[in-house]
UniProtKB/TrEMBL annotation:
The chain holds residues 479 to 752 of 767 of the full protein. Keywords: ATP-binding, Coiled coil, Hydrolase, Nucleotide-binding. Residues 50-193 form the AAA+ ATPase domain. It comes from Diplogelasinospora grovesii. This is P-loop containing nucleoside triphosphate hydrolase protein. GO terms for cellular component: cytoplasm.
Length: 274
């Protein structure tokens, strides 16, 4: 077990409860965890082919990475995480070896999960698929993708290994990745709805000093279209304003509604229709 520790990352202790809203995402991931250790006999009663590969897609800052981390924490599965871009920054041949090694290790210590963040940087469309804006038309990226596809083909037989991938650009993925037996369950992680936004503000309020005039329902209404990350950013800016007031005027009545409203006005929205 000794050599395993350098790659077998300790997940940061994020839990599903730390994620505001996203109930259907949490449900799908809990099911994935349960199924990874379920007997094939029981699974065959309900599934032709139980999904083993999962894709989280959606706009930036809306908790895809958090969801993967929470899944790792709560499942206790051995967790391997790799960013697409990291794999591409290796020497020729190194990234392919890294991918093969990753799957081999995951198999050895199953039940386990492999998380590919920013999968589009290695799993972009191969030339010939009619996409011009591909980031993997270079040879390096192409070989990594081929290796990944090969590993995933052997992967149905891989009891107890779950593959989870995340992307902001699902349309850029090579369709071969999404074929049955590879990544065959696709989960949309939406921007937070009003309930989720309330939950995010409540989560922050529970940890900070809030003025009694803070109205969380109103804040949730005023942040339609903002990502979770942007809402966290709003709270951070409001916190700075309240801290400055404390330092400069000695007023320690906490973060005020007006601090939050100013921060909302100043926070740009990144999520677009597309
Ligand atoms: P990217 O595509 O940019 O990697 P992502 O969807 O993976 O984004 P995360 O990294 O999971 O987004 O989220 C970024 C930060 O936003 C989190 O660390 C967290 O602070 C905050 N956040 C986003 N959504 C939520 C949420 N639903 N509840 C609580 N915090 C959230």
């Amino acid at each position: 077990p000794s050599a395993m520790h350098d790659v077998n990352l300790k997940p940061p202790p994020i839990r599903f409860d730390d994620i505001g809203g996203q109930e259907s995402v949490k449900k799908a991931l809990r099911r994935a965890v349960r199924m990874s250790t379920e007997s094939t006999e029981r699974l065959s009663r309900y599934f032709d082919r139980p999904p083993r590969g999962f894709l989280l897609y959606g706009p930036p800052g809306c908790s895809k990475t958090m969801a993967a981390q929470a899944m790792a924490t709560e499942s206790g599965l051995n967790f391997f995480a790799v960013k697409g871009a990291e794999l591409l920054n290796m020497y020729v041949g190194e990234s392919e070896r890294a991918v093969r090694r990753l799957f081999a290790r995951a198999r050895e210590v199953a039940p386990s999960m492999i998380f590919f963040d920013e999968i589009d940087s290695i799993g972009g469309q191969r030339p010939g698929f009619g996409s011009s804006s591909s980031s993997t038309t270079s040879h390096g990226g192409l070989n990594v993708l081929t290796t990944l596809l090969n590993e995933m083909d052997g992967f149905e037989a891989m009891e107890g290994v779950v593959v989870l991938a995340a992307t902001n650009r699902p349309q850029a993925l090579d369709p071969a990745l999404l074929r049955p037996g590879r990544i065959d369950k696709v989960i949309y992680v939406s921007p937070p709805d009003e309930e989720a936004r309330k939950a995010i503000f409540r989560g922050v309020a529970a940890k900070r000093r809030m003025n009694t005039d803070v109205d969380i329902d109103q804040l949730a209404r005023d942040t339609e279209g903002y990502s979770g990350a942007e809402i966290k950013g709003i709270c951070a800016h409001a916190g700075e304003a309240a801290y400055d007031r404390d330092v400069e005027e000695g007023s320690s009545d906490g973060i005020r509604m007006s601090d939050l409203q100013t921060a909302i006005r100043n926070q740009r929205r990144q999520i677009t229709k597309e």
